[in-house]
Amino acid sequence: MRITRYADIGLRVLIYLSKADAHRAPATVAEIARQFDIPVNHLVKVAGQLARVGWVQSLRGRNGGLLLGVDASTLRIGTVLRELEGDAELVDCEGLQCRLSHDCRLRGALAAGLRAFYEAMDRYTLADLTRGASGEQIIRMHRNFLRSSKEHDDSATT
């Protein structure tokens, strides 16, 4: 099974915000897009959905940006993937008009596999994914971005 690019972007946004948020400096869409080489228009769509479900807080204005809207230790990765991927079957047997659909065991096997995948993902929280070296790297990325933005702003005003 492979997750969609949409869900991948959503996970990256949440992971990034979980550590960038520790500094109480909102991360901008442009920052996250640059850090992960993601098209801004894709990131805006994903961030919008994350904000609608309450996982991301969007702040407007000059010092605006995105903040994590939930406690990272309570947000289950399975929950995130269900929201971003949907809970649809892996194969649309009805749409294919498969001649085996009445007696086929593949549909049940795939459904069991999908359930097992989500159950495995439910064992992890957002906080679990950002412990250790990954979390430290995100903190450095965010600090470096803020530092370079400040230097850019300072040179533009002089």
Automatic annotation (TrEMBL):
Domain of life: Bacteria
Record's keyword terms, sorted: DNA-binding
Gene Ontology MF terms in the entry: DNA binding; DNA-binding transcription factor activity
Cellular component aspect of the GO annotation: cytosol
InterPro entries: Tscrpt_reg_Rrf2, WH-like_DNA-bd_sf, WH_DNA-bd_sf
Pfam families tied to this protein: Rrf2 (PF02082)
Matches recorded under Gene3D superfamilies: Winged helix-like DNA-binding domain superfamily/Winged helix DNA-binding domain (1.10.10.10)
Keyword Isomerase: no
PANTHER family: HTH-TYPE TRANSCRIPTIONAL REPRESSOR NSRR, WINGED HELIX-TURN-HELIX TRANSCRIPTIONAL REGULATOR, RRF2 FAMILY
Protein name from the UniProt record: Rrf2 family transcriptional regulator
Organism: Noviherbaspirillum cavernae
